[in-house]
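Hello everyone,

My group is preparing for a crystallization screen and wants a predicted model to guide construct design. The compound we'll soak is pyridoxal-5'-phosphate. Before spending weeks at the bench, it would help to have a computed complex in hand. I've included the protein sequence and the ligand's SMILES below. Output in structure-token form would be ideal because that's what our pipeline reads.
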Amino acid sequence: MSLSQSPRLPAVSDRMLRVGTESAFEVAARARALQAQGRSIVHLEIGEPDFDSPVAAREAAKAAIDAGMTHYAPFAGIPELRAAVRDDVALRKGVDARVEDVFITIGGKGVMVYAIMALIDPGDEVIVPDPAYPIYDSITRFCGGTPVAIPLRAEDGFELDPDRVAAAITPRTKMLVLNSPANPTGGVLGRPALERLAALAVEHGLVVLADEIYGRILYDGAEHVSIATLPGMAERTVILDGFAKTFAMTGWRLGYAVVPPWLSPHMGRLIINTISCAPTFVQVGAVEALRGPQDEVDAMVAEFSARRSLVIDGLNAIPGLSVSPPKGAFYAFPDVSGTGLTGPEFAERLLLEAGVCVLSGRAFGAAADKHIRISYATSRENLTEALRRIEAFVRGL
Ligand SMILES: Cc1ncc(COP(=O)(O)O)c(C=O)c1O
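Reply:
Good plan to model first. Here are the tokens for the complex, ready for your pipeline.
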């Protein structure tokens, strides 16, 4: 009898049977295992800038360790970082928040987990775009809630259609999740759509979880509008943002929430129950990321813009693939159905037969079966080699 069959071991909780995953991490582990066997793999699966974190942040974090800032921080974050976030959201998002409503978390992911845990009871419905970052759906199910998927269409630039949202609202709807610029599509919600979504949230008493983690990674003059700035929205929006994408600080694991005052005590209590606080010296470094020179961010976004052109032109030159330029973030989301393969088939065979690791659109929801996601947060050299391999793979089908 294997260990897992032993009658003396307890079963995991029911909620563990409902929780999903983020397959980027699992796919990356599989690709690395193939690499360990001697295969050459180009990695386009993880959404992680390949740049160094800002010099000022690194220096400040190192100095903070040497200065003994290696103890617990206040649960909501060090005052200097909460104030820096408050100032930054005022400057860049036009959101006028109280410092008491700013919470420093472990990753932006922490914010989505806390917001959903704080608000969703069994039976509550959460409207989620499809395709979308998979953790909104997963944590909603974990909490016993029901995710209600709204399909996004390539022909709409993957913008969430307010009419479809209106049609999906029921008396059980409690939350609407927005992610702009979006993972995995690069879609950006324009002001007219946001105004209509805000009006729906106010009319139906919904909370909006506004995932703005790619808010500074925009192209061709696209504008980032925070829904929290629209009438009636400050008291019903949880802003999720962080340091991972903007500042190439993924491994620092630092994010933040700006929440309505009525939610603040609950956010604080969830942080105390789970992490106690984010690491102190990491927060000291993050103050410099926000307050220090921003030229490294600007240079990174300029480089993403060049890579975006390389990838979009390269993909569109391959028969059977079609993709529109994303307006933000650093993902291309091509339709591969012209090759005769589904997204999952394409991703699987591309890895095994051509040594290029991408994600299937299916990893982000049922509506994206025809797509794959390519992260272009990697060097032009890697991207050029990946395009060469993808073209050879498609021509050989
Ligand atoms: C849309 C979206 N939100 C949140 C996150 C989580 O970011 P963090 O690394 O700060 O937890 C990611 C990471 O890929 C993301 O794509």
